[in-house]
Amino acid sequence: MSRGACERAALVTAAAWLCSGYWPTAQAQTPAPAAPTGRREASVDFNIPSQPMASALNSWAVQANAQVFVDPAPVAHLIAPAVSGSLTPRQALRVLLAHTNLEVAQGANGVFVIKPRPPALAARPAPPTPAVSDDAAPVAPPPRQSLTARASAGPWLFGIFAQFARDSGTATGGASGAIAGEYFITDHVAAALALTAPRSHSFDGSGSQDTPAQRASAHLQSSAVMLKYYFAPQNRLRPYLGAGIAVTALYDSSAVAGLDRVTVGPAVVAGLDVTLNPHWLFRAELGWEQVRPALAAGPGGDIRLDPVQFGLGFVYRFGGLSRDADFFVKRR
After folding, report:
1. Which of 75, 112, 126, 271 could form a disulfide with 285 if both were Cys (CB 3.0 to 4.6 A apart)?
2. Distance between CA atoms of residues 249 and 293, nearest Å
3. Which residues pair with 266 in a beta bridge?
4. Fold type of domain 149-330
5. How far apart are the two ends of the chain, measured CA to CA in Å?
6. Where are the chain's structural domains?
7. What angle, rounded to 10 degrees, do the helices at 53-64 and 89-96 form?
8. Is the entire prediction scored with pTM above 0.70?
């Protein structure tokens, strides 16, 4: 044999030896590549006793003349059942994995891959958190929704006042006390009731050409029902206007006949509340009432008192969900 023929024979022998070898796979190895996936699988007489899953898969690969790939971790503590009979390689694998959380898939290269089944309801991945740079400006939290004045401070108001009345003309008024209650229908509109303590009023009585008029007097007690409008119900200074009806009772009159009676007339008021804290307010108020009792007899005619009243006092508002924080945020 020539030298060139010898070299060619040596190369062929080396190539044949390399081709006859096989590369290891995870857990199981096979002597020959598996059939393509499109080809119909032939039945094989399997005889695999019960044993650890890794060893059983290796026995299956040898008897099925196929390749199998498996991660050692999922099968480390599993015991495979016995498989015996004429089955296709895929059927035999299913018997081995029947009571496990493993499933089999075959790749395009014919290799069988053993892997854990995905959970029935895969957890939805959390949305990625956007990266925040160190120089990014801090995001301010949304401002808290402030309560309305009626909801925070409450719909009810009660006040007590020192009041001074000045009558019209030659009539004189005097000092007295008063109480008031209000209910806020809305933040701006309130229904009010005010009661004054009795006070004494003096005025000129009836007279004649021969007899000069005498100084007369009577006790007066008034009540007023009004609607008030508050212009700035959530500010520190809260001006308001009101209008309604005053009911005035005159009694214990002297030097005038027929003056003991009740009169009804219009009434108006203007005032200012100064907020001291979420519940307490200081109030200054100026009002006018029409008080014109008609005499039952005598030449004196009607008497016009029409007192102008000025009062100072404190009011307390309640019935809401007021908090000190809300008060200091809202006041201006």
Report:
1. 271
2. 9
3. 245
4. Porin (2.40.160)
5. 116
6. 33-116, 149-330
7. 170
8. no
Paired strand residues for 221 = 249
List the chain pLDDT tens, one digit each, 332 residues. 455 554 555 444 444 444 333 333 444 444 444 444 445 678 889 899 989 888 888 998 899 888 888 888 888 888 889 988 898 888 888 888 888 888 888 877 778 888 888 876 444 555 565 555 555 555 555 555 566 778 878 899 999 999 998 887 666 777 889 999 999 999 999 999 999 999 887 776 655 555 555 677 888 899 999 999 999 998 999 999 999 999 999 888 887 766 778 999 999 999 999 999 988 999 999 999 998 887 654 444 567 888 899 999 999 999 887 444 444 444 44
- In the block, residue with structure tokens 């009806």: 245
Q: 131-162: b or e for each residue (b if 16 or more CB lie within 10 Å)?
A: eeeeeeeeeeeeeeeebebbebbbbebebebe
Environment class of residue 190 by beta-carbon count within 10 Å: exposed (0-12), middle (13-18) or buried (19+)?
Answer: buried
85: region left, alpha or beta (phi > 0 left; psi from -120 to 50 alpha):
left
CA 238 and chain centroid, separation: 29
Query: What six digits make up the tokens of 292?
Result: 């014109």
Q: Under a CB-based contact definition with an 8 Å cutoff, are residues 306 and 293 in contact?
A: no
Specify the amino acid at residue 61. A
The burial of 309, by beta-carbon neighbours within 10 Å (0-12 exposed, 13-18 middle, 19 or more buried), is given as buried
Number of H helices, E strands in the chain: 6, 16
CATH of 33-116 given 3.40.50.720, 3.30.420.40, 3.55.50.30, 3.30.930.10:
3.55.50.30
